[in-house]
Amino acid sequence: MSTIAQQHTSTFSVQDLELKLKQVRLAHPEQSLPSPPSSDSGLSSPAESQNEESYFLRSLKECLDIYEEPSRPRSESLSLLSDEEVIMLANNGNIAAYALEKLFGMDQLERAVRIRRAIISRASSTGTLESSSIPFENYDYSRVLGACCENVVGYIPIPLGVAGPLTVDGKQYPIPMATAEGTLVASTSRGCKALNAGGGVTTVLVGDGMTRGPAIDFPSAIQAGKAKAWIDSDDGHEILREAFESTSRFAKLKSLKTAIAGRTLYVRFATTTGDAMGMNMISKGTEKALEAMQKRFPEMVVLALSGNYCTDKKPAAINWIEGRGKSVVAEAVVPGHVVKTVLKTTVKDLCNLNVKKNLMGSAMAGSIGGFNAHAANILTAIFLATGQDPAQNVESSMCMTLMEPTGSNGEDLLVSVTMPCIEVGTVGGGTVLAPQQGVLDMLGIRGAHPQQPDQNAQTLARIIASAVLAGELSLLSALAAGHLIKAHMAHNRSQANTPAVSVPATPGAGLAYRV
C-alpha cells in the first residue's frame, strides 16, 4: 500500500463517515432519508418510520456544538443541521422561533418559514399547521421581512377579480378586486357598464393630507391653554412647520388643529406625503415638531404620539368633517334609458330609495359617514388587491351617496359619491409585495410618480371612488328592482356539500347582477 493510501486509512474513521452521512440531510431532509423497510403490505409502520428519522437525529449536545461553533457564522452552522435538529434546538430554547429568518440568512427564508410551521404546529392543540393547505412555498419572503409581517408561516391567497373597465376622467381602468364575496365583482361590473354608457365618471380631489394627533399633558389647564395659543400663532406654527418638514422632502405641513380637554392638549398635524400613504412619514415629522415645542414648554409631557385625535382605524366625526388622506368626489350622469335597460329600474325609484335608505335610514341609525349602501365592500376589495392597509377601510369607506333626476324632463340620473378619507399609497407597506405591485402595474400607478410626487396615490383614490360609485349604483338598482336575493342565490350560495365544478354555470337572464 502506498504512503498516501496509508495516511488516508489512518485519518478517515468510521465516525467521520457517519458524520458526513448525517450532514447530507441539510435543508432537504426528505431527499436524504433512507427508504423505510418494506413489509408484506408495502407500507412501513409509524414506529419504523420514526426509527429511520431518529437514525440521523444527533443528540442535543452534538447539535449545540455545531450551532455554537465560534469559527463560522450561525447561518453556516444551521446549514449543517437538519430541520428536525433545528426544531430540537428551538424547543430547547436555544433558538428563538421568531428570529429564524435572521439566523438563516436571506438565501434560506423559505426554510425558516417551513421550520417555524413545524414548531408552532407541534406546540398547538390541533397540530394541523405543519401539513395544512396553507401555502408557504415559492413566495418572495425577502419583501415581507422587516416590512409587512412577523413570525411568518405562509400566505393567504384571495381570489382576484377584475370589474369594468370603467372610464374615469376620460381614461379606462380595470377595477381590481380581491374578495371572497360572490356577486361583488359582477355587480360592480354592471355599475361600470351603466356609468360608461353615460360617458364615464368625473372626479374632483378636494383635499389631500394625512394626519397625526398626539396627546400632550401639562401641569394645568392654564399652561395647556398657553401652549394652544402659541401653536395657533404665526410664530408657533412656523417653528413647528420648520421642524416637521426637516424630516422629509415630501412632508409639507398643511395645517395644525388644536383642542383641549382639561389639562391635556391635542394637536392634529395634517401633511402631504407624496405617493406614500404616509403614516410613518407624518409620525416622524410630528415627533420632531414636538421636540421643538418642548424647548418652549419644558413642562409638557407627550403621552402618546397618537392620541386618537388623528383619527386612525376608528370611525370619527373629525375625519368625516375635516378629511384624512385623499378627499374625493366622483360624479356621473346615467341616461334614463340605461337605468331602465341595464339597471332594470327607474330614476324615480332609485332617487326615492337612496333618500330613504342611505340618507334617512343612516341618520336614524346615528351613522358617521355611513350614508351609503356598501362602499366598504368595493373599497376593501381594491385595498387588498393593491397592498393598502385593510384596517383603514374603517374611515376610508366613509361615503355619502347622492342621487337626483337631471336632464330636461328629469329623465336622466345624476349620481355622486363623496369620500373625504381615502387613505392610500403606491409606495411602502403592502405595495412592496410582488402580486400587489403587479396590480398597480396593471393600473399604471406603481411606485412613485416620476414627475409629480402624489399623482399616483391620488389617481388610485380617484379610481376607488369611481368604483364605489359603480358598486353603489348597481346595488341600489338591485334593491329597487327586488333582484338582490336572486343574484346572491345564483352567485354567492354556499356549495359546501356539493363538489365544485371547474367552470361556473352562466347566470340566467334577468338576474340583477348579470353584466
UniProtKB/TrEMBL annotation:
Fetch the InterPro entries from UniProt: HMG_CoA_Rdtase, HMG_CoA_Rdtase_cat_sf, HMG_CoA_Rdtase_CS, HMG_CoA_Rdtase_eu_arc, HMG_CoA_Rdtase_N, HMG_CoA_Rdtase_NAD(P)-bd_sf, HMG_CoA_Rdtase_sub-bd_dom_sf
Instruction: Give the location in the cell.
Output: Endoplasmic reticulum membrane
Pfam family of the protein (one): HMG-CoA_red
The primary location reported for this protein is: endoplasmic reticulum
Renumbered to this chain, the Low complexity biased-composition regions fall at 29-48
Q: Which GO terms describe its cellular component?
A: endoplasmic reticulum membrane; peroxisomal membrane
UniProt pathway: Metabolic intermediate biosynthesis; (R)-mevalonate biosynthesis; (R)-mevalonate from acetyl-CoA: step 3/3
Q: Which CDD domains match?
A: HMG-CoA_reductase_classI (cd00643)
Cite the residue spans of the region called Disordered.
25-48
SUPFAM superfamilies referenced in this protein's UniProt entry, alphabetically: NAD-binding domain of HMG-CoA reductase, Substrate-binding domain of HMG-CoA reductase
Q: Which GO terms describe its biological process?
A: coenzyme A metabolic process; ergosterol biosynthetic process; isoprenoid biosynthetic process
The Enzyme Commission number assigned here is 1.1.1.34
Q: Where, by residue number, does the polypeptide cross the bilayer?
A: none
Family under the similarity heading: Belongs to the HMG-CoA reductase family.
Protein name according to UniProt: 3-hydroxy-3-methylglutaryl coenzyme A reductase
Q: Which organism is it from?
A: Candolleomyces eurysporus
